[in-house]
Amino acid sequence: MIGIFDSGIGGLTVVRAVMDALPDHDIVYFGDTARTPYGNKSGRTVVEYSIQNTEFLIEKGAKIIVMACNTASSVATQTLQERFDLPIYEVISPAVDLALEQTRKNIIGVIGTRATIESGIYEEKIRRRSAEAKVHSTACPLLVPLVEEGWTDKPETRMIVKKYVHPLKVRQIDTLILGCTHYPVIKPIIARKIGKKVRIIDSSVALAGQIRQFLTDNPETDARLGKNGTTRFYVSDITRQFQKTAKSVIRRPIELNRVDLQL
Questions:
Q1: Which residues are catalytic (predicted)?
Q2: Is 69 one of the catalytic residues?
Q3: How many domains does the chain have?
Q4: Residue 136 assigned as binding residue
Q5: 2, 9, 65, 69: the active-site residue
Q6: Domain residues for 79?
Q7: How would you write the chain as a 3-class SS string?
Q8: Is 71 annotated as a binding residue?
Q9: Neighbours of 13 (CB within 10 A)
Q10: Catalytic residue status for 180
Q11: Which residues in the chain show pLDDT less than 70?
């Protein structure tokens, strides 16, 4: 079973991408909706949440862990890899690899939560792979709450997105990394506001492709995974809006199971 966790709605874009890439594989998802967003939490708190989320998924039978959260990926990856003896995937590296493949002018933009942008993880990984690349980043703290509230096509959302991406347009980026798995939900708005010439990098699609390649290269790991095409969804809080948005992202009715995770 493939275990996927996120702070809320955003991780469902990764679930959808993994379902598309590996339709026969069983998936268990945990969305920490009671404690979302992670982007305004301290690094220490996010690490503690990530450990707890991973332990929960392992209890449910996960043999691979996918951190479908850029904030968690930016601060907790090393801790999880040292603590747990199973493959741990994060969303940042696949997005960076894809951005460097697609950029034409080596001018890359990144949008994400405040915690992700302040960590500098995207700049570090991009420059480690390409010394010539220029990276411009913008924190977008209002976008996660807007997505969680289902404001995916409101005038206010369009106005805020325009304000956030304007500095990146001025710097003439040619590639934009969506550094939060919530952002693909509003990708059409982001694409319109940043302009047709800018290539959008969706980390959920890049990550799903990397997992599929890993399982192709490691058949012994693939053989340990359930392949009944089932997906189970767990959350730490259930709201009507989350149910509505989740159905829209997954593109079919889903059953949400509430669980309590306490620090």
A1: 69, 180
A2: yes
A3: 2
A4: no
A5: 69
A6: 2-90+205-258
A7: CEEEEECCCCHHHHHHHHHHHCCCCCEEEEECCCCCCCCCCCHHHHHHHHHHHHHHHHHCCCCEEEECCHHHHHHHHHHHHHHCCCCEEECHHHHHHHHHHHCCCCEEEEEECHHHHHHCHHHHHHHHHCCCCEEEEEECCCHHHHHHCCCCCCHHHHHHHHHHHHHHHHCCCCEEEEECCCHHHHHHHHHHHHCCCCEEEEHHHHHHHHHHHHHHHCHHHHCCCCCCCCEEEEECCCCHHHHHHHHHHHCCCCCEEECCCCC
A8: yes
A9: 29
A10: yes
A11: 262-263
106 is known to lie in a ligand binding site: no
**Six-digit token string for 251:** 């593109």
Residue 50, domain CATH = 3.40.50.1860
Give this prediction's pTM: 0.87
Q: What is the pLDDT of residue 244?
A: 84
In this predicted structure, what is the pLDDT of residue 262? Answer: 66
Res 84: pLDDT: 97
Q: Is 89 annotated as a binding residue?
A: no
**pLDDT, tens digit, 9 for 90 and up, residues 208-228:** 999 999 999 999 999 999 999
Ramachandran quadrant class, 235 (left: phi over 0; alpha: psi -120 to 50; beta: rest): beta
The one catalytic residue among 1, 180, 189, 200: 180
Does 29 carry a binding-site annotation?
no
What is the reported pLDDT for 28?
A: 97
Residue 180 lies in a domain: yes
Query: How far, in Å, are 59, 183, 199, 200, 229 from residue 192 at the CA level?
Result: 42, 13, 11, 11, 35
